[in-house]
Design brief:
mainly alpha, Growth Hormone, Chain: A, about 75% helix
Length: about 400
């Protein structure tokens, strides 16, 4: 597939960048709309802490097949042919949440469908942005994809938390808002594509429909040893911030709105660090893992005094750490992946990233809520070790990757 910058005038390229970013934003916005509402579901459906985090984590079960198959499908059939249906499904997933107000089973179904939609949307949208800028400017693609995703992740829970706290129908209106947003952004993105005269060509008509990277042995080692641990941090950090840290403040007033604001702070921090990520260069992943480790530590310190301030600081650090790791991972994928398997490589990167979604479930499954500080200390140690490992990997000669 030709890079757009070589095949289209700058105006057309800019229109396509906006279209890709809009579709990524639309999918990302919906993924955490339900997060502040979990406390309402917990009260209404009498859910345990483990059930609460399982609702959050079942999302990853839908992601796995979508990530592994969506990217290769876009390599074979074209980015838009996979991306557009995925974003449509993301909007439909929000509507599946509506009967979940009275059914735990429907909440699991809705999160699973949301995972199916998001996995393909994220991997294919990221690959499309990498196509548009080419490998020589992979930094731009990583920054744009990270910013679109992080902004969507941020504004989704912020809007739902505020709507649920102060507007009627708290388990209905937030999802309708997302479905409407998806419709508007889809129309806008497709209009931009038509204005740019984009022809949705496959990267390779012979591309495998299985998740094969097509990387040489040295690049495969880099993928396993550097990209995989970086990817796990991407969502291990913010998922704990928005599901576990609120449990440290059970008696805080306006807890639903606070959870939405906390989610926005964590995920918004991931967006705010994007402009500065390029300054860190190859150290971006190591610094992100270090920030996440400190964020876990702040959460552990906040547990006993139930300190709102420390919870907020911890959430911001966890979000910033995840955002830096997202940028570092997408940048590395953009540099490693050949155009004909770019979708597959992005899918595998996000698959590793969403392994981190299991972290909240692990953090709450083996201790009582009153002792979550112990889990957070363990996570802080693991984050520190990951940061040290990535620092060593990035200082090693490239031929040793």
């Amino acid at each position: 597939m030709l890079d757009v910058e070589a095949a289209a005038p700058p105006r057309a390229a800019r229109l396509l960048w906006w279209a890709a970013a809009a579709l990524l934003f639309a999918a990302a916005f919906g993924t955490n709309v339900s997060t502040p509402l979990l406390l309402i579901y917990r009260h209404r459906l009498h859910l345990s802490t483990t059930e609460l985090t399982a609702i959050f984590g079942v999302y990853a079960l839908g992601l796995a097949p979508s990530l592994l198959l969506g990217g290769p499908a876009s390599d074979r059939f074209g980015r838009l042919r996979v991306l557009v249906p995925s974003v449509v499904l993301a909007g439909a997933a929000s509507l599946v949440f509506l009967p979940g107000a009275h059914s735990l089973a429907m909440l699991f179904v809705a999160r699973f469908v949301q995972g199916l939609a998001s996995g393909a949307a994220f991997s294919v949208g990221s690959a499309w942005l990498q196509d548009l800028v080419g490998t020589t400017t992979a930094t731009h693609a990583a920054r744009r994809a990270s910013l679109a995703l992080s902004t969507g992740f941020c504004l989704g829970p912020l809007s739902s938390g505020l709507l649920a706290e102060w507007v009627p129908a708290p388990l209905t209106l937030p999802y309708l808002v997302h479905a409407g947003l998806v419709a508007v952004l889809l129309v806008g993105a497709l209009t931009l594509v038509r204005l740019a005269g984009w022809a949705d060509r496959p990267a390779s008509v012979r591309a495998s429909l299985l998740p094969r990277t097509g990387l040489a042995a040295p690049e495969r080692r880099t993928f396993r040893r550097t990209l995989a641990p970086t990817a796990v941090c991407v969502y291990a950090f913010p998922s704990v911030a928005i599901t576990v840290l609120p449990l440290l403040l059970p008696h805080r007033p306006h807890v639903v709105a606070f959870t939405g604001a906390l989610s926005a702070l964590a995920l918004g921090s991931g967006a705010l660090v994007q402009p500065a990520a390029h300054l860190l260069g190859r150290m971006c992943g190591a610094v992100g893992a270090a920030l996440g480790a400190v964020g876990y530590g702040c959460g552990a310190l906040a547990a006993a005094p139930q300190s709102t301030g420390l919870v907020l600081v911890g959430a911001a650090l966890l979000g910033a750490g995840g955002g830096l790791c997202l940028n570092a991972g997408l940048l590395l994928v953009g540099r490693l992946a050949p155009p004909e398997t770019r979708g597959a490589c992005n899918g595998l990167f996000y698959t590793w990233a969403y392994v981190g979604f299991a972290t909240p479930l692990l953090a709450t499954s083996f201790v009582e809520t009153a002792h979550l500080d112990r889990s957070l200390v363990v996570l802080a140690v693991l984050g520190t070790l990951t940061s040290g490992w990535l620092l060593l990997r990035n200082r090693a000669p490239r031929r040793a990757s």
